[in-house]
Amino acid sequence: MIEPLLTKCGWRLKNTDTAKDRQLRAAVTSLAAIHCQSDAGLAASCVEMTLDYLDDHTSLADDVRASVFKLALAGGESSDELWRQLVSKAEDPATPQTERVDIYHAIGFVRSKALKRKVLQWSLTPSVKTQDFFFPMASVRLSSKDGADLAWDWLETNFSAVRSRVSTASSTLLASVLISCSRNAYTVEMAERVEKLMADNNLKGVIIHSCKRKAIWFICMK
């Protein structure tokens, strides 16, 4: 279903593109980044496009950039080395902020579980600004089932460090962390884990109620 649309939309900008064409391409490539990770040919193409980007950052359209990085990291050969290059690119002060954020959104899609853990730890370092540090967490969470479990387990273990990082910032940043590390969690068990973390740390908010409603709705639909 996705492949025919990918063929139609392509990955490159066209002079004839309309705003709707770009919106469609962004939506389709975003779906491909989640559901086509096992497509070796597509992953190889995305690795090539990522390497081209690292040589010339203007070579990759901004509406597909994060999706290309995700597929390259999740399904490409030598994804570990590509991961290191993208981390280095994100840490480069000369990298435009929009490109840096796209890397944050994708970096957790790397195959290696050890590198996924490094992404989570990296998010707490000065290399990632506090205003952005929940983006890498979300990328690990959304990368796979294992990534989802890893992100929440990590948050439970490292919550004090996370909270300390935002102690002088807006409380919405802490809410963003909770949302990022529990995103797409539609089970009562997960809702209860979120609730316990909030209770143990004297947090208040509506995230748990939203999570429970989604879990109940999902169970009813099954």
From TrEMBL:
Hydrolase in keyword set: yes
GO BP term, pick one: proteolysis
A single GO molecular function term of this UniProt record: metalloaminopeptidase activity
Keywords, alphabetical: Hydrolase, Metalloprotease, Protease
Keyword Hydrolase applies: yes
Domain ERAP1-like C-terminal: 2-205
GO cellular component, one term: extracellular space
InterPro entries per record: ERAP1-like_C_dom (IPR024571), Peptidase_M1_aminopeptidases (IPR050344)
PANTHER family recorded: AMINOPEPTIDASE (PTHR11533:SF299), PROTEASE M1 ZINC METALLOPROTEASE (PTHR11533)
Family affiliation: Belongs to the peptidase M1 family.
Protein name (Swiss-Prot/TrEMBL): Protease m1 zinc metalloprotease, putative
Organism field: Perkinsus marinus (strain ATCC 50983 / TXsc)
